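Researcher: Quick test of sequence recovery. Tokens follow.
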């Protein structure tokens, strides 16, 4: 392959939460000599293991994973930092002669790497942020979100009205640069891109929702509530961005005595199902993604076979396809 023309080969595996991306990616990596770059906005935080469904060392089966356990929960990690670190990891994996694989369900993180968006480097304006938060307290989060909708409808469509941190950040970008966030998202970073194969995994809705419910139950059995308690006991502010992640905010509400544990678990499951729906909506807009429907007629090994075939067809000089019975 002419790398100067096509760029570094990059496999991208996306899909809704709990669909089975991690297991599939690890098995593919074992077949083709791959290393995984996690595209999950919560798995970057240390100490948040059970609630983010991080693969254990045993589950990784020796496959190197990158961008997991990068920062502490009180650090505000952003997409620009992810883009920079992911680019570094991908280049290093390729330099070792292995195949980089970007795997995860955080759509903006994936898009930042694949489409090489350029993000305006800009230090935080704490005074402006304080002013915007005060406006939200006085007039309501919905009012502040409407201000964003008037200057940047695409950004407002992506950001939930109750996600005050992101609404404030988007308005800060506009007031500081004179351009709305969507303008910056359309810019491209200089330098070589990647020769990308994008694969999306999905399952029938009822099966996916059952897997989500089962995953949450397993998290609770594995001590998720204790994990949240340990983070709070370590002094992390429950209002910090990392602890507003799905599951953590529901468990914190329970630990504060605001809701019973049963209700916290119910809300956790409901909110993860809603997340899965939003993820599918996001990824289905990208026509480059080649979808594979998992389920009764397509198990994990069948999906692995299909992805390896795709890779061998795209990069025959890099990937040799052998049926599973002949694989290592």
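Model:
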């Amino acid at each position: 392959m002419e790398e100067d023309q096509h760029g570094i080969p990059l496999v991208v595996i996306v899909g809704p939460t709990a669909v089975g991306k991690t297991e599939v990616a690890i098995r593919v990596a074992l077949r083709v000599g791959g290393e995984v770059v996690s595209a999950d906005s919560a798995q970057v935080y240390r100490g948040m293991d059970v609630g983010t469904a991080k693969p254990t060392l045993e589950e990784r089966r020796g496959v190197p994973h990158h961008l997991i356990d990068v920062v502490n929960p009180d650090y505000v990690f952003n997409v620009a930092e992810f883009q920079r670190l992911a680019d570094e990891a991908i280049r290093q994996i390729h330099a070792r002669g292995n195949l980089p694989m970007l795997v995860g369900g955080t759509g903006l993180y994936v898009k930042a790497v694949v489409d090489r968006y350029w993000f305006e480097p800009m230090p935080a304006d704490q005074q402006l942020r304080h002013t915007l938060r005060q406006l939200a307290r006085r007039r309501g989060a919905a009012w502040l979100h409407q201000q964003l909708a008037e200057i940047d409808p695409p950004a407002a469509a992506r950001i939930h009205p109750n996600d005050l941190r992101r609404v404030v950040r988007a308005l800060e970008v506009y007031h500081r640069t004179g351009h709305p966030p969507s303008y910056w998202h359309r810019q491209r970073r200089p330098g070589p891109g990647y020769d990308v194969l994008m694969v999306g995994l999905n399952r029938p809705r009822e099966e996916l929702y059952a897997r989500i419910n089962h995953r949450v139950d397993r998290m609770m059995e594995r001590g998720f509530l204790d994990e949240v308690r340990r983070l709070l006991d370590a002094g992390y502010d429950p209002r910090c961005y990392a602890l507003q992640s799905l599951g953590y905010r529901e468990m914190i509400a329970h630990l504060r005595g605001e809701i019973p544990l049963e209700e916290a678990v119910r809300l956790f499951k409901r909110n993860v199902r809603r997340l899965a729906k939003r993820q599918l909506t996001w990824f289905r807009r990208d026509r480059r993604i080649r979808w594979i429907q998992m389920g009764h007629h397509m198990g994990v090994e069948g999906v692995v076979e299909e992805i390896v075939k795709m890779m061998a067809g795209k990069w025959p000089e890099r990937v040799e396809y052998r049926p599973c019975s002949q694989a290592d």
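DSSP finds 15 helices and six strands in the chain.
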